[in-house]
């Protein structure tokens, strides 16, 4: 009897102690969310980066010059410079992209030469990185915009810029930690019971053996149950999580990414299988850029896409999808 009581006391003490310790860990459970900043511009693809820069230039009054045979959105497929116009003035926009890019004077000089060949009066050089000291020295009519300077201009076009870069620890992760803590309490209680039971006389230990052993296990088993995350009842797909919260987070990430595309005003899920994409222009057709974003998530690749024209437009709502079910 004494062995049972000591085992239970150790089980309860260790379980409660570990629970308080886990709840008092501010670094793991309540880490400050990382803000989106200028450094994240360097993580975009070149075309996405150029699209954000064009939106910033659009707010300044510039429009891309759509050349014969060129793309309809004015963004070259080969990553070359973009010709802009505003009030009859032509400006060459050079997006120098790269992680941790440092743009030197030779690159800027080449952009100035290209501008003169294409009839542009000024040059705007943009990079998510930074410029070499004195890179534009002696070059008139050249504007340099680095990552820190660019971020305030493109920030309005980034969906939810202040959201955490990584999801906070989920309830299921917290539940697993609690389950492990109480599992450890079971082990500690069992060890104490076994040690004390071995010291006590054999007759007394034998009479309590079968009744005592299941007690700590039964008390610990329910601890993992309340925190277990609900499971999705859809058929499992390779590379697709089954946790409902993680699936919802992936859907949110996909919608946020679509909302940053050129020609898209906003995007949201009207149902689990339909993504509503509100267009900023009746002639916008962002499907070529939407599909690669959705196809990163196998469970969203076959989603129905509802292209909603701007309010007041005479264009019809269009339904399409990237991949057949």
Keyword list:
325 residues, alpha/beta, Trna Endonuclease, Chain: A, domain 1, GMP Synthetase, Chain A, domain 3, 3 domains, five-stranded mixed sheet, 10 helices, 41% helix, elongated
Describe this structure in words.
This protein is α/β, with parallel strands linked by helices and 325 residues long. The protein folds into three domains: 2-33 and 167-224; 38-157, Trna Endonuclease, Chain: A, domain 1; 244-321, GMP Synthetase, Chain A, domain 3 (2-Layer Sandwich). The chain has helices at 2-23, 26-29, 46-59, 105-117, 147-154, 171-199, 202-212, 214-220, 244-259, 287-294, and strands spanning 63-64, 82-86, 89-95, 102-103, 122-126, 130-131, 142-145, 264-271, 274-279, 304-308, 318-321. The longest helix is centred in the middle third of the chain and has 29 residues, at 171-199.
Strand order of the largest sheet: 1-2-3-5-7
Number of separate domains: 3
Helix and strand composition category: alpha/beta
* Quaternary structure annotation: single chain
Beginning-to-end CA distance, first to last residue: 63 Å
Largest sheet: 5 strands, mixed
Computed CA radius of gyration, to the nearest angstrom: 30 Å
CATH third-level topology of the largest domain: Trna Endonuclease, Chain: A, domain 1
The CATH architecture assignment of the largest domain turns out to be 3-Layer(aba) Sandwich
Average the pLDDT over all residues and give the rounded result. 77
Low-confidence stretches: 26-35, 163-171, 203-213, 215-232
Portion in helices: 40-55%
Return the CATH class of the largest domain: Alpha Beta
Query: Tell me, what's the shape?
Result: elongated
Kindly estimate the percentage of residues that lie in beta strands according to DSSP.
Answer: 15-25%
> Number of helical runs?
10
- The ordered string of helix (H) and strand (E) elements is HHHEEEEHEEEHHHHHEEHEE
**Secondary structure tally: strands:** 11
